[in-house]
Amino acid sequence: MKNYFEDIRRKLNKEIELEEIVIVDNSHKHKGHKFYSSEKFHLHLKIKSLYLSSLSRVNAQKIVMKALSNDLKTKIHALEISIEK
Question: 39-44 contacts: CB < 8 A, separation 24 or more?
Fold first, then answer.
């Protein structure tokens, strides 16, 4: 799992100038949900980025989601994104 989170960090750092990123795995909170799968993650990305914070919230989130588009199809079920300066 830690290797996968490092992959996420690398993908985002390749596409976006980030000061810091914290990846929180909230998968355990969703075990009873209808579409829960132990093979997919429920993640919260806490991102500090001057670049992303200069954009609208929607555009900043689109950039993050584009960088992780393949992961969203295969490994990430839910993604929460928080962006700070």
Answer: 39/75, 40/75, 40/76, 40/77, 41/4, 41/75, 41/76, 41/77, 41/78, 42/76, 42/77, 42/78, 43/8, 43/76, 43/78, 43/79, 43/80, 44/79, 44/80, 44/81, 44/82
pLDDT value of position 49: 97
Q: Which pTM does this prediction carry? A: 0.87
All structural domains of the chain, each given as residue ranges with its CATH number in brackets, are 2-84 (3.30.300.90)
pLDDT tens profile 31-53: 766 666 767 899 999 999 999 99
